[in-house]
Design a protein that fits this description.
Length: about 160
């Protein structure tokens, strides 16, 4: 088994500051460490397709929107928790790649409706399968009940922090 970097850091702090409760660091630092470790494991299929993780997130948000595979940029911004400026940059790249198109909104000529093209739909459907296989591989060291417990605890922590 590899070294538990977080436990080592907490052990060092315990030696230096035994008066502190370092238990929260065991959780928070591991979540941060996991995010750092996951990125290079999950990014390669997107990069091979010429996409960033954020580009794929936008394509996936449009795919999840239902049979018209369309949404307004403001809705995408809210669902992906990024600024409208970030959405615009992603849309520009994806439109140039022929994966999305922007049309004037039916009910508001000033607004735009973004939708997947046929190529965008095909690519998103292919990549989501690869992405889920990667996620399953990452979690393969946990039993189904451990994965269930972890997802419940993480969901509760997210809900607490978002409220």
């Amino acid at each position: 088994m590899t070294e538990d970097t977080v436990a080592r850091i907490v052990e060092q702090w315990t030696g230096e500051r035994p008066d502190l409760d370092l238990a929260p660091m065991l959780v928070v630092a591991r979540v941060i460490r996991l995010a750092h470790l996951l990125d290079p494991l999950l990014r390669p299929p997107f990069a091979a397709a010429g996409l960033s993780n954020g580009d794929f997130d936008l394509l996936a948000a449009l795919r999840r929107a239902g049979p018209d595979y369309a949404a307004r940029p403001v809705r995408l911004s809210r669902s992906l928790l990024v600024t409208t400026g970030a959405i615009t940059k992603r849309l520009d790249r994806l439109e140039a790649a022929g994966l999305v198109e922007r049309d004037p909104s039916d009910d508001d000529g000033r607004g735009k409706l973004c939708r997947l093209t046929a190529a965008g739909l095909d690519l998103t459907d292919r990549l989501i399968g690869v992405h889920l296989e990667n996620q399953a591989r990452v979690l393969s060291g946990l039993s189904p009940s451990e994965r269930e417990q972890l997802q419940r605890l993480l969901a509760r922590l997210c809900a607490d922090l978002e409220s």
